[in-house]
Automatic annotation (TrEMBL):
Its EC number is 2.6.1.16. It comes from the Bacteria. InterPro entries: GATase_2_dom, Ntn_hydrolases_N. The keyword DNA repair does not apply. Residues 1-234 form the Glutamine amidotransferase type-2 domain. It is an enzyme of class 2 (transferase). Keywords: Aminotransferase, Glutamine amidotransferase, Transferase. It holds the Pfam family GATase_6. It comes from Actinomadura chokoriensis. This is Glutamine--fructose-6-phosphate aminotransferase [isomerizing]. SUPFAM superfamilies: N-terminal nucleophile aminohydrolases (Ntn hydrolases) (SSF56235).
């Protein structure tokens, strides 16, 4: 979530964030976590949270999001302009290892990854430092941490082979969120009537959130494969603007032919799944020599 500074009541957006975390359990219960970041320019900082410098608290652990979340976090969540949540189904990296849970803090990034990628391929092509955990997510974050702009970001994203949807924040720019959908792993962005911006895997969750919270959504859009977006607020002296899309870029994602799996759309309605499948466009690596073809999956 990227919170609008103009909402009269922080409660509805916070309720949506927690609701999305609970709903996301259908896509993974091995571990879960949340990160609360930042402070709006000119509005003062957080109270002391006992966490690292820069206004960031990361809480994560084994099990369901409902087991990680605590009502005691509500005051901090209400003041956080950016909040990131994650639930994990462990495809690579033991779910018993706390360092493999997300959101992950890698260099200056706090980040999440939905999917499964060829991490060995990335490490063979790039000089990366040793990882602290054993997931396939950490190499992506190590590369993205060094990116200076959209062209460098998309170069990294085009180097990734596998299923990938990402969200990340640089801790020195905590009111800017980067979102990217590569091959297959779904990513939906929604805006409510207070101009809070959210993202999640499944568009159905936003319809469910409307039934269980006071929030109402003016827009719910599934991002197409190969989409990168930076959202947040442009700092302007003396002004507080609503969150907006600050930059976008397109890239061509690559998947292994084995990545096409019905579990990509776990929890989707039939209609949402077919709409998303009809728009898929990625390269598929399917030959022993590693070459690829451009395919459209419908």
């Amino acid at each position: 979530m990227v919170r609008s500074p103009f909402a009269e009541d922080a409660g509805p957006a916070s309720d949506v964030f927690v609701t999305l975390g609970m709903l996301a359990e259908e896509r993974g219960t091995d571990s879960a976590g949340l990160a609360l970041l930042g402070a709006w320019p000119g509005l003062g900082g957080w109270p002391s949270l006992g966490g690292p410098a820069g206004g960031c608290r990361v809480v994560r652990g084994r099990g369901r999001f409902a087991e990680i979340w605590r009502p005691a976090y509500v005051p901090e969540l209400d003041r956080s302009p950016v909040a990131i949540g994650h639930t994990r189904w462990a495809t690579q990296g033991s779910p018993l290892e706390p360092r493999n849970a997300s959101p992950m803090a890698v260099r200056d990034l706090v980040a999440t990854h939905n999917g499964d990628i060829d991490a060995a391929d990335l490490r063979s092509r790039f000089a990366l430092p040793p990882a602290s955990g054993t997931t396939d997510s950490e190499p992506i974050f190590q590369l993205l941490a060094g990116c200076k702009g959209p062209s460098e970001v998309t170069a990294v994203l085009e180097a990734v082979i596998g299923r990938v949807a990402l969200a990340w924040v640089h801790r020195d720019r905590p009111t800017e969120v980067h979102l990217a959908r590569g091959a297959l792993s779904p990513l939906t962005v929604a805006v409510d009537t207070d101009q809070n911006i959210y993202w999640a895997s499944n568009p159905r969750w936003f319809r469910d959130a409307e039934r269980h919270t006071r929030a109402r959504f003016s827009s719910v859009v599934m991002l197409r494969e190969g989409t990168y977006a930076k959202i947040g607020m442009e700092p302007r002296p003396g002004r507080r603007d609503r969150p907006e899309v600050l930059a976008t870029a397109k890239f061509l994602p690559t998947a292994r032919h084995t990545d096409m799996d019905p579990r990509v759309w776990t929890g989707f309605t039939d209609d949402d799944r077919e709409v998303d499948r009809a728009g898929l466009l990625h390269r598929a690596v399917h030959r022993p020599d590693g070459t690829s073809d451009l395919i459209t999956v419908a």
